[in-house]
Amino acid sequence: xxxxxxxxxxxxxxxxxxxxxxxxxxxxxxxxxxxxxxxxxxxxxxxxxxxxxxxxxxxxxxxxxxxxxxxxxxxxxxxxxxxxxxxxxxxxxxxxxxxxxxxxxxxxxxxxxxxxxxxxxxxxxxxxxxxxxxxxxxxxxxxxxxxxxxxxxxxxxxxxxxxxxxxxxxxxxxxxxxxxxxxxxxxxxxxxxxxxxxxxxxxxxxxxxxxxxxxxxxxxxxxxxxxxxxxxxxxxxxxxxxxxxxxxxxxxxxxxxxxxxxxxxxxxxxxxxxxxxxxxxxxxxxxxxxxxxxxxxxxxxxxxxxx
Length: 307
Hints:
Layout: H1 21-28, E1 38-43, H2 65-72, E2 75-78, H3 88-96, E3 103-106, H4 110-113, H5 124-133, E4 142-145, H6 155-164, E5 171-174, H7 184-196, E6 200-201, E7 203-205, E8 221-227, H8 233-252, E9 256-262, H9 269-283
Parallel strand pairs: 1-2, 1-9, 2-3, 4-5, 5-6, 7-8, 8-9
Helix pairs in contact: 8-9
Protein backbone atom coordinates (compact mmCIF):
# COMPACT_ATOMS: atom_id res chain seq x y z
CA UNK A 1 0.00 0.00 0.00
CA UNK A 2 1.57 3.29 -1.14
CA UNK A 3 -0.74 5.63 0.79
CA UNK A 4 1.24 7.33 3.56
CA UNK A 5 4.48 5.52 2.82
CA UNK A 6 7.77 7.26 3.69
CA UNK A 7 11.27 6.51 2.45
CA UNK A 8 12.77 7.66 5.75
CA UNK A 9 10.95 6.78 8.99
CA UNK A 10 13.72 7.90 11.33
CA UNK A 11 11.75 10.82 12.79
CA UNK A 12 8.29 9.22 12.86
CA UNK A 13 6.55 8.96 16.22
CA UNK A 14 4.80 5.59 16.02
CA UNK A 15 3.15 5.91 19.44
CA UNK A 16 -0.51 4.94 19.34
CA UNK A 17 -2.80 7.87 20.13
CA UNK A 18 -4.58 7.82 23.47
CA UNK A 19 -7.76 5.80 23.54
CA UNK A 20 -10.64 8.29 23.08
CA UNK A 21 -12.85 8.49 26.16
CA UNK A 22 -15.90 7.97 23.97
CA UNK A 23 -14.81 4.40 23.19
CA UNK A 24 -15.51 3.08 26.69
CA UNK A 25 -18.92 4.76 26.80
CA UNK A 26 -19.84 3.41 23.38
CA UNK A 27 -18.89 -0.18 24.17
CA UNK A 28 -20.68 0.00 27.52
CA UNK A 29 -23.89 0.94 25.68
CA UNK A 30 -24.17 -2.50 24.07
CA UNK A 31 -25.90 -5.42 25.86
CA UNK A 32 -23.58 -7.74 27.73
CA UNK A 33 -22.42 -10.66 25.62
CA UNK A 34 -20.40 -13.61 26.86
CA UNK A 35 -19.08 -14.44 23.40
CA UNK A 36 -15.27 -14.05 23.27
CA UNK A 37 -13.69 -11.44 21.04
CA UNK A 38 -13.08 -12.83 17.53
CA UNK A 39 -9.79 -11.81 15.91
CA UNK A 40 -9.20 -12.30 12.20
CA UNK A 41 -5.69 -11.86 10.78
CA UNK A 42 -4.93 -11.89 7.08
CA UNK A 43 -3.17 -10.38 4.10
CA UNK A 44 -4.32 -8.64 0.93
CA UNK A 45 -4.08 -11.55 -1.50
CA UNK A 46 -3.28 -15.23 -1.79
CA UNK A 47 -1.50 -15.28 -5.18
CA UNK A 48 2.02 -14.90 -3.83
CA UNK A 49 4.45 -17.33 -5.43
CA UNK A 50 7.15 -15.94 -3.12
CA UNK A 51 5.41 -17.66 -0.21
CA UNK A 52 5.94 -21.13 -1.68
CA UNK A 53 8.47 -22.96 0.47
CA UNK A 54 8.05 -20.52 3.37
CA UNK A 55 4.30 -20.23 4.02
CA UNK A 56 2.98 -22.58 1.33
CA UNK A 57 4.37 -26.12 1.01
CA UNK A 58 7.09 -26.55 -1.56
CA UNK A 59 5.61 -27.35 -4.96
CA UNK A 60 2.23 -25.68 -4.30
CA UNK A 61 0.57 -24.77 -7.62
CA UNK A 62 -1.15 -21.44 -8.25
CA UNK A 63 -4.56 -23.13 -8.48
CA UNK A 64 -4.12 -24.32 -4.88
CA UNK A 65 -2.97 -21.03 -3.38
CA UNK A 66 -6.36 -20.07 -1.88
CA UNK A 67 -7.03 -23.31 0.06
CA UNK A 68 -3.44 -23.30 1.31
CA UNK A 69 -3.71 -19.62 2.24
CA UNK A 70 -6.95 -20.34 4.15
CA UNK A 71 -5.17 -22.96 6.25
CA UNK A 72 -2.68 -20.31 7.33
CA UNK A 73 -5.00 -17.30 7.74
CA UNK A 74 -8.64 -16.85 8.74
CA UNK A 75 -9.44 -13.75 6.65
CA UNK A 76 -8.38 -11.76 3.60
CA UNK A 77 -8.64 -8.16 2.50
CA UNK A 78 -10.23 -9.02 -0.83
CA UNK A 79 -8.94 -6.36 -3.21
CA UNK A 80 -10.06 -8.10 -6.41
CA UNK A 81 -13.64 -6.88 -5.83
CA UNK A 82 -12.38 -3.30 -6.07
CA UNK A 83 -11.86 -3.85 -9.80
CA UNK A 84 -14.75 -6.14 -10.70
CA UNK A 85 -17.80 -7.65 -9.05
CA UNK A 86 -17.45 -11.45 -8.92
CA UNK A 87 -20.12 -13.67 -10.42
CA UNK A 88 -21.91 -16.30 -8.29
CA UNK A 89 -19.85 -19.20 -9.61
CA UNK A 90 -16.58 -17.53 -8.69
CA UNK A 91 -17.79 -16.69 -5.18
CA UNK A 92 -19.02 -20.26 -4.72
CA UNK A 93 -15.63 -21.57 -5.81
CA UNK A 94 -13.81 -19.30 -3.34
CA UNK A 95 -16.11 -20.26 -0.48
CA UNK A 96 -15.76 -23.98 -1.21
CA UNK A 97 -11.97 -23.71 -0.79
CA UNK A 98 -11.88 -22.21 2.71
CA UNK A 99 -12.85 -23.58 6.15
CA UNK A 100 -15.93 -22.50 8.06
CA UNK A 101 -14.06 -20.03 10.28
CA UNK A 102 -12.66 -18.09 7.31
CA UNK A 103 -14.02 -14.63 6.47
CA UNK A 104 -13.73 -12.72 3.18
CA UNK A 105 -13.54 -8.92 3.52
CA UNK A 106 -14.41 -7.57 0.06
CA UNK A 107 -13.34 -4.05 -0.89
CA UNK A 108 -16.14 -2.06 -2.50
CA UNK A 109 -15.82 -1.66 -6.27
CA UNK A 110 -14.21 1.58 -7.38
CA UNK A 111 -17.28 2.13 -9.57
CA UNK A 112 -19.04 2.77 -6.24
CA UNK A 113 -16.47 4.17 -3.83
CA UNK A 114 -14.79 6.45 -6.36
CA UNK A 115 -17.91 7.62 -8.20
CA UNK A 116 -19.37 11.10 -7.64
CA UNK A 117 -22.63 9.56 -6.45
CA UNK A 118 -21.18 6.67 -4.34
CA UNK A 119 -23.35 4.51 -6.58
CA UNK A 120 -26.58 6.00 -5.25
CA UNK A 121 -29.36 5.60 -7.79
CA UNK A 122 -27.32 3.34 -10.07
CA UNK A 123 -27.21 -0.41 -10.67
CA UNK A 124 -23.77 -1.11 -9.19
CA UNK A 125 -24.88 -1.19 -5.55
CA UNK A 126 -27.68 -3.76 -6.04
CA UNK A 127 -25.34 -5.81 -8.23
CA UNK A 128 -22.66 -5.76 -5.52
CA UNK A 129 -25.14 -6.58 -2.76
CA UNK A 130 -26.26 -9.60 -4.75
CA UNK A 131 -22.64 -10.75 -4.96
CA UNK A 132 -22.14 -10.24 -1.22
CA UNK A 133 -25.12 -12.44 -0.46
CA UNK A 134 -23.37 -15.31 -2.21
CA UNK A 135 -20.62 -15.37 0.45
CA UNK A 136 -23.11 -16.48 3.11
CA UNK A 137 -21.61 -16.96 6.57
CA UNK A 138 -18.10 -16.61 5.13
CA UNK A 139 -18.61 -12.87 4.59
CA UNK A 140 -16.63 -10.79 7.04
CA UNK A 141 -16.61 -7.00 6.92
CA UNK A 142 -16.88 -5.16 3.63
CA UNK A 143 -14.45 -2.30 3.25
CA UNK A 144 -15.00 1.05 1.53
CA UNK A 145 -11.85 3.04 0.85
CA UNK A 146 -12.90 6.61 0.09
CA UNK A 147 -10.66 8.45 -2.40
CA UNK A 148 -8.16 11.06 -1.13
CA UNK A 149 -10.25 13.93 -2.49
CA UNK A 150 -13.45 12.87 -0.69
CA UNK A 151 -13.72 15.41 2.14
CA UNK A 152 -16.00 15.87 5.12
CA UNK A 153 -18.11 18.33 3.14
CA UNK A 154 -19.61 15.22 1.53
CA UNK A 155 -20.66 13.68 4.86
CA UNK A 156 -24.38 14.13 4.06
CA UNK A 157 -23.91 12.02 0.94
CA UNK A 158 -22.04 9.37 2.92
CA UNK A 159 -24.83 9.35 5.52
CA UNK A 160 -27.37 8.76 2.77
CA UNK A 161 -25.24 5.90 1.46
CA UNK A 162 -24.95 4.31 4.90
CA UNK A 163 -28.69 4.66 5.51
CA UNK A 164 -29.45 2.26 2.65
CA UNK A 165 -26.53 -0.12 3.16
CA UNK A 166 -27.94 -3.56 4.16
CA UNK A 167 -27.48 -4.30 7.87
CA UNK A 168 -26.63 -7.94 7.07
CA UNK A 169 -23.36 -6.85 5.43
CA UNK A 170 -20.92 -5.39 8.00
CA UNK A 171 -19.10 -2.37 6.57
CA UNK A 172 -15.91 -0.47 7.42
CA UNK A 173 -15.05 2.94 5.94
CA UNK A 174 -11.55 4.37 5.56
CA UNK A 175 -11.18 8.17 5.35
CA UNK A 176 -8.11 9.69 3.68
CA UNK A 177 -8.82 13.40 3.16
CA UNK A 178 -7.29 15.52 5.94
CA UNK A 179 -10.57 17.33 6.63
CA UNK A 180 -12.06 14.30 8.41
CA UNK A 181 -9.47 14.72 11.18
CA UNK A 182 -9.29 18.54 11.27
CA UNK A 183 -10.48 19.17 14.80
CA UNK A 184 -12.63 17.53 17.42
CA UNK A 185 -15.87 18.90 15.98
CA UNK A 186 -15.32 17.22 12.61
CA UNK A 187 -14.41 13.91 14.24
CA UNK A 188 -17.46 14.05 16.49
CA UNK A 189 -19.67 14.72 13.48
CA UNK A 190 -18.61 11.68 11.45
CA UNK A 191 -18.30 9.31 14.41
CA UNK A 192 -21.93 10.10 15.27
CA UNK A 193 -23.00 9.24 11.72
CA UNK A 194 -21.06 5.99 11.57
CA UNK A 195 -22.30 4.97 15.02
CA UNK A 196 -25.89 5.71 14.01
CA UNK A 197 -25.67 3.31 11.09
CA UNK A 198 -23.52 0.63 12.77
CA UNK A 199 -20.58 1.27 10.46
CA UNK A 200 -16.95 0.66 11.45
CA UNK A 201 -14.35 3.42 11.16
CA UNK A 202 -11.27 1.72 9.72
CA UNK A 203 -7.94 2.49 11.41
CA UNK A 204 -4.84 2.85 9.25
CA UNK A 205 -1.44 2.74 10.93
CA UNK A 206 1.01 4.12 8.37
CA UNK A 207 4.18 6.19 8.80
CA UNK A 208 3.36 9.21 6.68
CA UNK A 209 -0.22 9.92 7.78
CA UNK A 210 -0.56 9.64 11.51
CA UNK A 211 -3.88 11.52 11.44
CA UNK A 212 -5.69 8.55 9.90
CA UNK A 213 -4.84 6.57 13.05
CA UNK A 214 -7.72 8.21 14.88
CA UNK A 215 -8.49 5.29 17.25
CA UNK A 216 -12.23 5.94 17.31
CA UNK A 217 -14.57 3.00 17.66
CA UNK A 218 -18.05 3.38 16.21
CA UNK A 219 -19.48 -0.08 16.95
CA UNK A 220 -18.29 -3.39 18.41
CA UNK A 221 -16.00 -4.09 15.47
CA UNK A 222 -12.74 -2.58 14.32
CA UNK A 223 -10.62 -2.97 11.19
CA UNK A 224 -6.90 -2.22 11.45
CA UNK A 225 -4.77 -1.80 8.34
CA UNK A 226 -1.18 -1.94 9.58
CA UNK A 227 1.47 -0.76 7.12
CA UNK A 228 4.92 -2.00 8.06
CA UNK A 229 8.31 -0.93 6.82
CA UNK A 230 10.04 -4.10 5.66
CA UNK A 231 10.13 -5.66 9.16
CA UNK A 232 12.03 -2.70 10.55
CA UNK A 233 12.42 -3.05 14.35
CA UNK A 234 9.69 -0.45 14.80
CA UNK A 235 7.21 -2.81 13.13
CA UNK A 236 7.54 -5.16 16.08
CA UNK A 237 7.27 -2.43 18.69
CA UNK A 238 4.10 -1.21 17.00
CA UNK A 239 2.67 -4.73 17.12
CA UNK A 240 3.34 -4.82 20.86
CA UNK A 241 1.40 -1.58 21.28
CA UNK A 242 -1.52 -2.89 19.21
CA UNK A 243 -1.72 -6.07 21.26
CA UNK A 244 -1.93 -4.01 24.44
CA UNK A 245 -4.65 -1.85 22.87
CA UNK A 246 -6.67 -4.87 21.74
CA UNK A 247 -6.48 -6.31 25.25
CA UNK A 248 -7.95 -3.06 26.63
CA UNK A 249 -10.73 -3.00 24.03
CA UNK A 250 -11.51 -6.65 24.73
CA UNK A 251 -12.14 -5.83 28.39
CA UNK A 252 -14.34 -2.90 27.38
CA UNK A 253 -16.49 -5.13 25.15
CA UNK A 254 -15.09 -5.05 21.63
CA UNK A 255 -16.28 -8.17 19.83
CA UNK A 256 -14.64 -8.39 16.39
CA UNK A 257 -11.21 -7.39 15.06
CA UNK A 258 -9.94 -7.58 11.50
CA UNK A 259 -6.17 -7.00 11.40
CA UNK A 260 -4.44 -6.75 8.03
CA UNK A 261 -0.63 -6.41 8.03
CA UNK A 262 0.84 -4.81 4.92
CA UNK A 263 4.52 -4.88 3.99
CA UNK A 264 6.33 -3.67 0.84
CA UNK A 265 5.11 -5.95 -1.99
CA UNK A 266 3.45 -7.93 0.86
CA UNK A 267 6.10 -10.63 0.62
CA UNK A 268 6.89 -10.24 4.32
CA UNK A 269 3.32 -9.67 5.51
CA UNK A 270 2.94 -13.27 6.81
CA UNK A 271 6.04 -12.80 8.97
CA UNK A 272 4.38 -9.88 10.71
CA UNK A 273 1.07 -11.73 10.98
CA UNK A 274 2.88 -14.69 12.56
CA UNK A 275 4.55 -12.39 15.08
CA UNK A 276 1.24 -10.70 15.91
CA UNK A 277 -0.54 -13.97 16.64
CA UNK A 278 2.35 -15.31 18.71
CA UNK A 279 2.46 -12.13 20.77
CA UNK A 280 -1.30 -12.19 21.29
CA UNK A 281 -1.15 -15.75 22.60
CA UNK A 282 1.88 -15.15 24.81
CA UNK A 283 0.72 -11.93 26.47
CA UNK A 284 -3.11 -11.91 26.46
CA UNK A 285 -6.12 -14.21 26.77
CA UNK A 286 -7.06 -13.45 23.15
CA UNK A 287 -6.95 -16.47 20.87
CA UNK A 288 -7.02 -16.73 17.11
CA UNK A 289 -5.21 -18.63 14.42
CA UNK A 290 -2.47 -17.37 12.16
CA UNK A 291 0.30 -18.52 9.85
CA UNK A 292 3.11 -20.87 10.80
CA UNK A 293 6.18 -21.11 8.58
CA UNK A 294 6.55 -24.29 6.55
CA UNK A 295 10.33 -24.07 6.31
CA UNK A 296 12.71 -24.43 9.22
CA UNK A 297 15.74 -22.38 10.13
CA UNK A 298 16.19 -18.60 10.22
CA UNK A 299 14.55 -16.54 7.49
CA UNK A 300 14.49 -12.91 6.56
CA UNK A 301 12.53 -10.98 9.15
CA UNK A 302 12.71 -13.62 11.90
CA UNK A 303 12.83 -12.03 15.34
CA UNK A 304 13.50 -13.30 18.83
CA UNK A 305 10.32 -12.73 20.82
CA UNK A 306 11.06 -10.77 23.97
CA UNK A 307 7.90 -10.87 26.07
